[in-house]
Amino acid sequence: MWDMKNIFHNIMKQIDTNNIPVIGIDGLGGAGKSTISETLCKKFQDNHYHIILLHIDDFIHVREVRYNSAYPEWQCYYDLQWRFDYFSNVINEIKNSKKDYIDIELYDKDNDTYFLQRFAIQCNTIVIVEGVFLQRKEFNNIFDYMIYIDVPEKVRLQRVLKRDTYIGDEQQIIDKYENRYFPAERRYMEEYQPGNNGDMLLSEKGENMKLRNYRREDSATICSWIQDEKSLYQWSADRIGKFPLMGDDLNKDYEPVISSDRFIPLSAVDEMDNVVGHLFIRYPNETDNETVRFGYVIINPAIRGGGKGKEMLHLAIEYARNELNASKITLGVFANNDNARYCYEAVGFQPVGKIETYKMAIGEWECIEMELPLV
After folding, report:
1. Residue 277: enclosing H or E segment and its boundaries?
2. Which among 195, 216, 214, 193 is positioned nearest to 263, based on CA atoms?
3. How far is 205 from 172, CA to CA, in rounded Å?
4. What is the CA radius of gyration of the chain?
C-alpha cells in the first residue's frame, strides 16, 4: 500500500546516519506499525545498514504494576504501562556506547518477567522503534525521525478482532478495547495531535483527500475559515488587507490572475467533494519554468491537528513534481506562525537564510523564506 522507496528517500534526506539515528513508527492499536517497521527494516538492510528493531510493547511493566485496581483501566494503560525511563536509558546507551553490543531487558509476556537479549551495535546502525504513544513528552529528544500511521478507529477495531484472539471472544475483545485501549488512545490524540507533529504522515483515513482545481463557489467556504485579523495576515500577508472577509473576497483577489496559466489555485476536498483545504501554486519568475511557489496555504480549522495540513502539502508537492515538472518549490512563512513553519519543515521545506520584513496595517512582521528541492 505504501511507497517504501519514497518513504526511505524522505527519511534519508533528514537523518544523520553517522550518529545512530532513531526512527519512530507511531500509531494506535491495529494501525499496521509492525508491518511498516519490518518492511522499512528490510529497505535499510538492502541499502547496507545495520538495524536494531525495538518494539515498545517489550518495555512494559509487569502485570502487578500496569493493572492497578486503584485506577481506571484506561489510565493504567496510559500512565502505568511502559518503562519510560528504562527505554530512554537503552536508547542513550546505544547512541553513546563504546562497546559493539548492548544487552537489553525485554518483557516475557508468557512468564510476566524479563529476559536479556543482546543486540549488536555497528558504525552503520539505525534504530527503528515501533509502538503506540511515541510522541509523548516522556520520549522527548529520543527520536530523530517520526512516522505516524493514521487509521480510523473502526478499521483498527476490525483488525484487532482478528488479531487479538488471545483476549477472548469478539465481545471480550471489544470490551477490552473500549475500557482500556481506546479511551487512552483518544486522550493521546487530544493531548499530542500526533498526526500533525511527526515528520511523515501515512494515512488510511476513509475520507481520502485529493486536490482539484479551485472553483468560484469555494471562495465562501475558504473565507469563512479566517476568524481573526492576525490569521488573515498570516495567511495572505498584505494582499487582501481587510477583515472580516466576505464570501466572494477570494474570487476578487484572484480575478486579475485567475486566467493565467502561471497561476494555479487548488482546493483540497474529501470524498464528498467538501472543501477542506486550499493553496495556490504560481511561477514567481516569468523566465523560470522549473521553480514554483506555494501561497495562501490553509486547512479547515475544524480538522487541524490530525495531519491534514501535511497531507495536503504532500499532494501539492507531488502535483508540482509530476504535473508541472518543477525542480524546486519556494514559500514564505511569518516568524510568528510556528504551527505553519513546523508543518512545512515536516514535509521537507527548509529555511534558506533569507528574511524579509513586511510592513502591514497590523504591524511589522518578519517572513522566513523556505525551499524544497525536488531533484
Report:
1. strand 275-282
2. 214
3. 26
4. 23
Write phi, then psi, for 9 (nearest 5 degrees): -60, -45
CB atoms within 10 A of CB 116: 8
302 DSSP assignment: G
> Which grid cell is 226?
479566517
Domains in the chain, ordered, with CATH? 4-203 (3.40.50.300), 210-373 (3.40.630.30)
Helices then strands, counting H and E runs in the chain, come out as 14, 14
What's the rounded mean pLDDT across residues 117-142? 97
Q: How far apart are CA 254 and CA 274, in angstroms?
A: 21
Angstrom distance (rounded) from CA 177 to CA 289 = 53
**Hunting for cell 506555494 — which residue is that?**
294
Terminal C-alpha separation, the chain = 24
> Which residue carries 476536498 as its cell?
269
Angle CA 209–213–218, to nearest 5: 85
Q: What is the pTM (predicted TM-score) of this model?
A: 0.61
Q: Is residue 306 predicted with pLDDT exceeding 80?
A: no
pLDDT tens column, 155-175: 999 999 999 999 999 999 999
Q: Amino acid identity of 1?
A: M
